[in-house]
Amino acid sequence: MSDRPKYKRVLLKLSGEALMGDKGFGIDPDVALVVADEVAEVHALGVELGVVIGGGNIFRGLRADALDMDRVTADHMGMLATVINSLALQDALEKRGLETRVMSAIEIRQVAEPLIRRRAIRHIEKGRLVIFAAGTGNPYFSTDTAAALRAMEIHAEILMKGTKVGGIYTADPETDPGAERIDRITYLKVLEQRLQVMDATAITTCMDNNLPILIFNLRKQGNMIKAVMGEPIGSTISA
Questions:
Q1: Beta bridge partners of residue 49, listed in sequence order
Q2: Listing from the earlier edge strand, what are the strands of the sheet with 235-238?
Q3: How far apart are CA 192 and CA 215, in angstroms?
Q4: Is residue 177 part of a domain?
Q5: What is the CATH number of the domain that holds 15?
Q6: pLDDT score of 61
Q7: Which helix (H) or strand (E) holds 14?
Q8: Which residues contact 204 (CB under 8 A, 6 or more apart)?
Q9: In whole angstroms, what is the distance from residue 151 CA to residue 159 CA?
Q10: Which of 66, 145, 155, 197 is the most exposed place for a label (fewest CB within 10 A)?
Q11: Is residue 148 part of a domain?
């Protein structure tokens, strides 16, 4: 195994729930610092990083039906939730000495830079970590799709999605002890089998642009380092 990272530039997708820890809602500052430690270790290896974080720990646009709320309004609320999470992660990362920028797809200049692709790439080239907030800036698109889009825009070599499970399984590992992990799978099989790892738009976007996806367990310490080193963890989706 090489002692050099396998990837030079990575887009890391974190769920909003990743910042929640064992709380039922919101942000656990201790968990944010643990995530920041992992990210800082990866950054110290010379890996260039962009991060997209969800907002499900605060508000999820898809809940609009249950709340009898207009879907577009709900999705905008979800986007603003990702801005809150991005600022929390920025604070945790800067406590670890990293230089960061939050860039928002919705203009909100008092708290984040507007998202300008060339500027984002310039920040990354200068060694800054860029957190992309507010999803795609459009309703009806998930933060998974935003992650796929941002990965393409910054020319990332891989999209890594950190979740609370260790990859893609034949069944729900939390309810079925016989569930087996699938180490490698094609984009088409994920779509055909309707595997709920990322939404179909995100998978299709990656497939059309031949961007590999790695699903790994973010809660297991050291996994992020293993992922960028190319060690066999989690599940890889590719052509």
A1: 10
A2: 113-114, 100-104, 129-133, 48-53, 9-14, 158-163, 213-217, 235-238, 184-186
A3: 18
A4: no
A5: 3.40.1160.10
A6: 66
A7: strand 9-14
A8: 187, 191
A9: 6
A10: 66
A11: yes
Distance between CA atoms of residues 126 and 120, nearest Å = 10
H or E element, residue 29? helix 29-44
Tell me what pLDDT residue 131 has: 98
Q: Which of 47, 72, 186, 57 is nearest to 130 (CA)?
A: 47
pLDDT of residue 69: 87
Range of the domain at 134: 9-166+213-234
Tokens of 7: 């990837």
What is the tally of structural domains in the chain?
1
Using alpha carbons, select from 56, 20, 26 the residue that is nearest to residue 219. Answer: 20
Structure tokens at 58: 């605060």
**Could you tell me if 168 and 146 are in contact, meaning their C-beta atoms sit under 8 angstroms apart?**
no
Residues of the chain with pLDDT under 70: 1-2, 61-66
CB atoms within 10 A of CB 123: 21
The angle formed by the CA atoms of residues 122, 124 and 128, to the nearest 5 degrees, is 115
First to last CA, the chain: 24
